[in-house]
Amino acid sequence: MKTYTVITSFHQAGLELYGQKMIDTFEQHWPDSVDLVVYAENCNPVTTKNNVRVIDLLGASKECKRFVKRHRDNPEAHGGLGPHNEHDWTQKKSFKWQAVRFCYKVFSVHHALNNIDSEWVIWLDADSCTHSPVSTEWLARVCPQGVDFSYLGRTERYHSECGWVGYNKLGNHAINFANSFADM
Q1: What is the pLDDT of residue 99?
Q2: pLDDT > 80? residue 80
Q3: C-alpha to C-alpha distance for 164 and 139, rounded to whole angstroms
Q4: The predicted structure's pLDDT at residue 82
Q5: Are 174 and 167 in contact (CB under 8 A)?
Q6: Can you list the alpha helix ranges (DSSP code H) found in the chain?
Q7: Closest CA to 163 of 1, 8, 5
Q8: Which among 10, 5, 31 has a CA at the least distance from the CA of 21?
Q9: To the nearest whole number, what is the mean pLDDT of the chain?
Q10: Which backbone phi and psi does 62 adopt, to 5 degrees?
Q11: How far apart are CA 177 and CA 184, in angstroms?
């Protein structure tokens, strides 16, 4: 069993804008003992190291494929105005209702926690760029034993940062959380 596996997801436009750079800087700065699993959404990123692999998300996750198909023609699930958000919707806050856009992250985490043999599964947003070496000592500090989840916090003025979230599969709650989140 691996100790750490990092996962991410992106589509073709994301691959071109930031995804390939994310992979390249991961391969440059992360230890070889840490895997990167890219849940690709209809695109083909380039990898050069054995600890980096690509999974076709829609092929691997029937739940994701069903969700996307079910909401294909639902404007509200794409950030539009609808009966469930008519009292709260504004153009500026429309991202809060982009369920299809954000479902890829949910279903990537769900698939990883249920299928990847690793103590920690770490979600890392695909627009992240690693600029310095990452050590296993640092990972042990930010993914401490005895906790089920880990994230890189912000000051109390801001919302939580969910671009880096660690899920401890050896704990009691991570897999149940991922399954419940996917069910929603």
Answers
A1: 84
A2: yes
A3: 12
A4: 83
A5: yes
A6: 12-14, 20-29, 57-60, 62-70, 99-115, 136-142, 174-183
A7: 8
A8: 10
A9: 93
A10: -65, -30
A11: 11
110, two tokens: 């769900």
For residues 109 and 162, give the distance between their C-alpha atoms in angstroms, rounded to a whole number: 12
Alpha-carbon span 91 to 88, nearest angstrom:
10
Count CA atoms within 13 Å of residue 172 on its CB side: 1
Residues 39 and 60 sit within 8 Å (Cβ to Cβ): yes
Rounded Cα–Cα distance for residues 7 and 114 (Å): 13
17 vs 40, 106, 126, CA distance in Å? 14, 21, 10
Of 49-53, 121-125, 171-175, where does mean pLDDT reach its minimum?
Answer: 171-175
The pLDDT, as a whole number, for residue 86 is 81
Could you give the strand order of the β-sheet that contains 149-151, starting from the edge strand earlier in sequence?
52-56, 35-41, 2-11, 118-124, 164-168, 149-151
CB atoms within 10 A of CB 41: 20
The larger pLDDT score, comparing residue 53 to residue 158, is at: 53
Structure-block tokens of residue 3: 């100790």
**Cα–Cα distances in angstroms (integers) from residue 50 to residues 17, 64, 83, 159, 163, in the given order:** 24, 27, 48, 36, 24
Residues in the chain: 184
Q: Write out the two tokens for 118.
A: 């690793």
